[in-house]
Amino acid sequence: MKYKNKIQHNQSCKECKERIFELLTNVYGDVEKQYKLGILTNLKHYEENKRYSDMEKIFNCLTNERGHENFIKKPNLSPVDYYIKNETDKSKEFILEFDESQHFTNLRKVALENYPSSLNLGFDKEKWISLCESLNRHDNDPIFRDEQRAWYDTLRDFAPSILEIAPTVRLFASDYIWCELDVGNENDLKKFKNIVEMKIKHGNSYYCE
């Protein structure tokens, strides 16, 4: 694969997002964009879940960081970027998120640092923490937006343990010029599939550079 200068490429490129959908469909078949998981956003709904104490710890850390407590403004989690289905084995289904720079905030770092080591992830947590430190984005409209985004991303990462599916995969928008990948090129398809599969299998021990 050949790539343009990453600095010159708009990470919000709509073509990149569409290309990822095309690649996922080519590799996995049944893929849905903007898929509603049916996950609730309020912590109290998870009191009987085995992950409740972990989620409560993260939520409390987020609220304590800047004192913003009322950042949950809707009952249901907004749709995930992509949902990959598997008709024969639900445990192989997974969420794939395309993370642009606005997701890498100090509040996201706070959440990630409090993830339990037992939580399976489809991305390298340490790399994501490092990106939070280096990019250090802020969104104060509304004033609690960083807490809100960090909590919703946390729910997407915990969703597999709730839904009993494979770990949530995250792609960093600036890792590649994704729109330059050619769906008709066998090498590009293999490369893309390898990136996704390695993230699912190795999570915290896999860096995608």
The biggest beta sheet is recorded as:
4 strands, mixed
User: Helix coverage percent of residues?
Assistant: 40-55%
Strand order of the largest sheet: 1-2-3-4
Structural class based on helices, strands and sheet pairing: alpha+beta
Give me the strand/helix succession. Answer: HEHEEHHHEH
Please give the radius of gyration in angstroms.
17 Å
Distance between the termini: 13 Å
- The proportion of residues in beta strands is 5-15%
List the SSEs and their pairings.
Blueprint: H1 14-28, E1 31-35, H2 52-66, E2 80-84, E3 94-99, H3 106-113, H4 125-135, H5 145-163, E4 169-172, H6 186-202
Parallel strand pairs: 3-4
Antiparallel strand pairs: 1-2, 2-3
Description:
- By secondary structure, this protein is α+β, with helices and mostly antiparallel strands.
- The protein has one domain (6-200).
- It has six helices and four strands; from the N terminus they run αβαββαααβα.
- The chain has helices spanning 14-28, 52-66, 106-113, 125-135, 145-163, 186-202; strands at 31-35, 80-84, 94-99, 169-172.
- The chain has a four-stranded mixed β-sheet.
- Helix 2 (52-66) runs antiparallel to helix 3, helix 2 (52-66) packs antiparallel against helix 5 (145-163) and helix 3 runs antiparallel to helix 4.
